[in-house]
Specification:
alpha/beta, 28 helices
């Protein structure tokens, strides 16, 4: 680790990224989400609901627009995430005939939008209670007849539903997995010349296997220590503890990092080319989080996604980590995943050693690396850039092939759109018509499937600990008679807190089924009791993502990260290749021509995604086509200029990928798409805006999905324009001022 960039990737970059993740997720739970209320009724009930919202820790009423049109403008600007609408004349019919309050939330930013809508809905439901009690008193109906069955939800391992534990456990190990893999690719790639290990074998006296292990060991040790430090941070410093076996969890971290470095060696030795090995590494480990089952479950997703998830090492590690860190799962499943990871590491090391011996028999092939540009002329440099693309494989693989590949590869993880068929168990001491009705309602829902009806809670919890089911629905012994006489004792739901997306899906499905079973009991109540129970119904409306699909929310935002990172690294490789090959400095006109060519490529890639890919995948699109056409070149200008500036810092073009690939996942979360900016430290948000992707996600998601006007995304557009001007100016000035930032 004597090279400065190797030391930075091993020590500096993990420290920076882990610190960013820790600071970003430290609040844990989204609180005080900005919301609005359109109160056109101005009744005692609506005012009581608003007071409940203001007292809620989850939401903060920041606007009271007069109309829904004004509220939609606020939502497109990003000032609110949900809005409750009390229509005019609502109080005249409320509690006398079925009436409805609508809570609309921003489905394009679904995580915070759905949570803020839940906070508003809970506040409204609470306001209805006193009204029902008063009507019961006036009508002489027993108050117990008004009570629906209570649903008590308990989360195993993460009762606070903390995103720090969920996303921190998902994101940080995935980033370290990718950094370790990229670091090892270059470490082994240095031993190879022209696809041959002949020189390496002669230098080691034929002891290539021992020398290979010596090369990989520092990377394995360093990134294992980073992984253990993160576990210590979450479980010790942040106080989340370890629900299962700490030794097993430690072995899991070691196994993941062993697989990471060994698979890198295998890819280099099998492919015989460092650039291709980097691309393969980015494919299998760069999207490992998406295919890991940690976010959207893949149980009923496309067959490719399910098979690929089972192949990826990170899926096995994450299952082991979730079981041992969060839910206290049985150790037999953890040992199985550990054996798989260990077996892959051993087999990969053996194959790598054999391939090195095989490749050491061949003479090195001549390597050509160049990106030649003319001495002057904007047009000449622009044309020369495109002429170089077919021959400069490290560049075209990023600017063209990767753009097309990721357009179809990454969305495959979210093609299922919503959690479906999640297995649950129903615990009931008796089999009756009511329990059968509840099971039928659960099976009729898209989200869950009853895997077992059992008499013992302990048996259900054991099934959940073993990972067979995602939840346990417990019906008390007197559930049916109490419900029939109008005084239900309620039911309990125990859910696996290691997977928050699953928790939400199962909780909604069980609550809806319980409510349906309870409503069926109205048939036996007197007419006056049924009339008294006429409370306002609540409707949650997902705007800009009507199906509430996970892909429809995640992929449009992630696409901006893909577009940035491919263009950023492609531009960086161009600059790094010229430095690596000792090419002469570029005049300002040539710099401008090169920059304009990269802007054109980035703009074409953006329109390919926002037009064809979003249409093909049926994602929200073309809400404001003119705005997209205007901002796409500005976004591409900022990204390409930044890439050219960064590329000049590296002594080898492979280092561009080694350093920048690992930043992709943190940049997505820093964009505010999945974790909102109002929950992050202000300094971190300010630093996040130095990356064009942050403002781009905010702007393009609103333009494409929400149909926002340019005025409504003016702040993000101004940031993108400013970054393009600053980074572009620095790139053009480097030639005239002859400032060499690469030294």
């Amino acid at each position: 680790m004597t090279r400065p960039w190797d030391a930075f990737v091993a020590f500096g970059l993990p420290l920076i990224l882990l610190t960013v993740i820790a600071a970003m997720l430290a609040p844990g739970v989204i609180r005080q989400a900005p919301v609005a209320v359109v109160d056109q009724d101005n009744s005692a009930f609506s005012r009581a609901a608003i007071r409940n919202m203001e007292a809620s820790p989850g939401v903060r009423v920041v606007h009271a627009p007069a109309t829904m049109q004004e509220a939609m403008t606020l939502m497109r600007r990003g000032e609110i995430y949900s809005v409750a609408h009390f229509p005019a004349g609502f109080s005249d019919g409320a509690f006398r005939r079925p009436e409805q309050v609508t809570v609309s939330f921003n489905g394009a930013f679904q995580t915070v939008g759905a949570l803020s809508a839940l906070g508003q809905s809970t506040a409204i439901a609470s306001a209805a209670g006193p009204q029902l009690q008063e009507r019961a008193r006036q009508s002489g109906v027993p108050e117990t007849a008004l009570q629906p069955p209570a649903v008590q939800v308990s989360i195993v391992g993460n009762p606070q539903l903390s995103f720090e534990l969920f996303l921190g456990g998902l994101l940080a190990p995935g980033v370290l997995h990718l950094l370790a893999a990229c670091s090892a690719v270059l470490a082994v790639g240095r031993l190879m010349q022209g696809g041959s290990f002949k020189t390496f074998r002669s230098q080691t006296g034929g002891c290539t296997t021992t020398a290979l292990m010596g090369r990989l060991t520092p990377h394995f040790v360093i990134f294992s220590l980073w992984g253990l430090c993160w576990i210590a941070w979450l479980s010790g410093v942040r106080g989340w503890g370890v629900a299962g076996s700490l030794p097993l969890l430690t072995l899991g971290v070691l196994a993941l990092m062993a697989v990471s470095v060994v698979l890198s060696a295998l890819l280099v030795t099998a492919l015989g080319d460092v650039d291709t090995a980097f691309s393969a590494t980015a494919i299998y480990s760069g999207a490992a989080i998406a295919f890991s089952n940690g976010t959207l479950p893949l149980d009923h997703g496309p067959r490719f996604a399910r098979i690929w998830s089972d192949i990826l090492p990170y899926s096995h590690y994450l299952r082991l980590q979730t079981g041992q860190l969060v839910t206290g799962a049985a150790t037999d499943a953890a040992w199985r995943d550990l054996m798989i990871l260990g077996g892959v590491a051993v087999i990969g090391l053996i194959l790598s050693a054999l391939l090195i011996r095989l490749r050491s028999r061949f003479a090195p092939k001549p390597e050509t690396l160049s990106f030649s540009l003319p001495q002057q002329g904007v047009t000449a440099a622009f044309i020369a850039t495109f002429r170089n693309l077919p021959h400069a494989r490290p560049v075209n693989s990023l600017l063209i092939l990767a753009v097309v590949f990721y357009a179809f590869y990454y969305p495959a993880a979210y093609a299922g759109q919503a959690a479906a068929g999640l297995p649950v168990a129903v615990v009931t001491p008796t089999q009756s018509a009511l329990t059968r009705a509840l099971v039928e309602d659960l099976n009729a829902s898209r989200e869950v499937e009853v895997a077992a009806v059992i008499p013992s809670s302990a048996e259900g919890f054991e099934l959940m600990r073993r990972g067979v089911i995602d939840g346990v629905v417990v019906l008390p012994r007197r559930f049916e008679p109490d419900l029939v006489r109008g005084a239900p004792t309620g039911l309990a739901i125990w859910l696996n807190g290691g997977y928050l997306v699953r928790v939400t899906a199962v909780g909604k499905a069980v609550a809806a089924a319980a409510a349906h079973v309870a409503d069926a009991q109205l048939e036996g109540l007197p007419d006056i009791a049924r009339a008294v129970r006429l409370a306002p119904t609540l409707k949650q409306d997902s705007l800009f993502n009507p199906t509430e699909g996970y892909g429809g929310y995640a992929v449009p935002a992630v696409s901006l990260i893909i577009l940035q990172q491919t263009l950023l690294m492609g531009a960086g490789v161009v600059a790094a290749v010229r430095r690596e090959t000792g090419a002469p400095p570029l005049r300002r006109s040539v710099r401008l021509g090169l920059w304009l060519a990269l802007i054109a490529i980035g703009t074409a890639s953006s329109l390919f995604y926002f037009g064809f890919v979003f249409w093909l995948q049926d994602y929200p699109r073309a809400g404001n086509l003119i705005g997209v056409l205007l901002l796409a070149p500005i976004f591409s200008a900022g990204v390409s200029a930044l890439g050219l500036l960064l590329g000049g810092l590296f002594d080898r073009h492979e280092r561009v990928l080694q350093v920048l690939v690992g930043t992709s996942a943190p940049l997505f979360f820093l964009s505010g798409a999945a974790w909102p900016h109002f929950m992050m430290p202000k300094m971190l948000v300010w630093l996040a805006h130095l990356s064009p992707s942050t403002a781009a996600v905010q702007a393009f998601v609103r333009l494409n999905a929400m149909g926002a006007s340019l005025g409504e995304v003016a702040a993000s557009a101004a940031i993108l324009t400013g970054l393009a001007a600053v980074y572009g100016g620095l790139w053009l000035m480097r030639g005239s001022l002859r400032v060499d930032l690469s030294r």
